[in-house]
Amino acid sequence: MYAQLVKTEGLKAAEDMTPQERAFQERIDRNEKIEPKEWMPDGYRKTLIRQMGQHAHSEIVGQLPEGNWITRAPTLERKAILLAKVQDEAGHGLYLYSAAETLGVSRDELLEKLHNGSMKYSSIFNYPTLTWADIGAVGWLVDGAAIMNQVPLQRTSYGPYSRAMIRICKEESFHQRQGYDIMMKMAAGTPEQKAMAQDALNRFWYPSLMMFGPSDKDSVHSTQSMAWRIKMNTNDELRQKFVDQTVPQAKYLGLTVPDDKLVWNEEKGGHDFSEPDWNEFFAVIAGNGPCNAERLGARVKAWEDGAWFRDGLMAHAEKSAARQGALAAE
Ligand code: 3HC
User: Fold this and answer.
1) Of 178, 180, 175, 184, which is closest to residue 147 (Cα–Cα)?
2) pLDDT tens, 20-70?
3) CA 287 to CA 126: how far, in whole Å?
4) Best residue among 54, 140, 147, 226 to mutate for probing ligand 1, ranked by most atoms within 8 Å of CB
5) What is the DSSP string of 91-159?
6) Which pLDDT value is given to residue 63?
7) Separate counts of helices (H) and strands (E) for the chain
8) pLDDT tens by residue, 61-72
């Protein structure tokens, strides 16, 4: 398999690797976990920092479209569930920033890169949540897509990342179920409620398919990331699995997936479906989606508004350190 990729995708051949690089690749091929203090190629470290950092940013930016609905949830129970979900996303961000810090990058550096636009976060969070049904669609489709991508990442080669993913996936499953539960309620409600559910599906379907990244032919990192087991599947493989899993769920709700070309293909054992509009995807990840400025603005404001608290913590830490130093000197 690796030898084939060397031929077709230009990966470094074993004979061109240093002995250290070869030993590292052999460990990956044996499914061994790589731990923080162990030697790793610079490219492996860099790719992990990029992917884990973007993943962490996605979790905290992902709080914004849903947080917007906490005060407008239709019942106390729905409000409590949504609050728990949004808090979970903050926790996921924290595990992932902590896991990324084990690679030698600080949380402040990562946040600085989010704020100045030099690091990405998931395209999906640049779309607005216009109605309560959107909160259902986000849980069902967005968290559903996230799980499809993240369950395999529990087996990823970097130890701290794979362990963070175990807890995250458990919580994402609850998020997906709560979203589907909202959709079931809406789809079985009044004609107006069902129309809201259909409208939410119409608007979130293609952006959800885009979450898996560009088609394999345009994916820059997949081949090397898969050779290093940083990624376990290609973008198109996961997108196909997501469509095959989600179409029957839409049918159960009595809703229509907004794709005329969607059809079961017996021969391939999966659905044929229309690709998302990739021009739209590339515009969104370049910063020109419907809500990019609003989302980034909210994150930067939160950071700036928290300056007094960080300063207070630092002053307290410095004071405690000075006090301990004085005690030790006595
Ligand atoms: N949104 C924004 N940028 C994206 C993207 C998306 N949906 N898909 C791809 N990109 C970017 C890549 O980051 C890369 O840009 P870069 O070189 O500047 O970093 C470029 O497009 C080319 O794409 P590749 O396929 O080469 O990139 P990757 O190999 O990194 O694959 C990925 C993209 C599949 C998203 C992969 O990074 C991945 O599996 N990441 C971990 C999971 C993750 O980040 N999930 C975020 C989803 S949301 C979430 O988890 C919150 C939950 O609560 C819902």
Assistant:
1) 175
2) 999 999 999 999 999 999 999 999 999 999 999 999 999 999 999 999 999
3) 9
4) 54
5) HHHHHHHHHHHTTT--HHHHHHHHHTTSS---GGGGS---SHHHHHHIIIIIHHHHHHHHHHHTT-SBH
6) 97
7) 15, 2
8) 999 999 999 999
Please give the Cα distance from 30 to 45 (Å, whole number). 19
Q: What is the pLDDT of residue 2?
A: 58
Per-residue pLDDT at 9: 61
Q: Residue 221 CA: which ligand 1 atom is closest?
A: 26
pLDDT in the model for residue 252:
98
In the predicted model, what is the mean pLDDT of the chain? 95
Closest Cα to atom 13 of ligand 1 = 120
Tokens of 92: 């996921």
User: Which domains does the chain carry?
Assistant: 19-289 (1.20.1260.10)
Tokens describing residue 247: 């179409």
- Cα 220 to the chain's mean position, in Å? 18
Reduced to 3 states, what is the DSSP secondary structure of residue 238?
Answer: helix
C-alpha of residue 67 to centroid of ligand 1, in Å: 22
Greatest extent of the chain over all pairs of C-alpha atoms, in Å: 81
Provide DSSP, 151-219: HHHTT-SBHHHHHHHHHHHHHHHHHHHHHHHHHHHHHTS-HHHHHHHHHHHHHHHHHHHHTT-S-GGG-
CA of 170 to the centre of ligand 1 (A): 21
Query: Rounded distance, CA 195 to CA 225, Å?
Result: 42
265 forms bridges with which residues in the sheet?
270
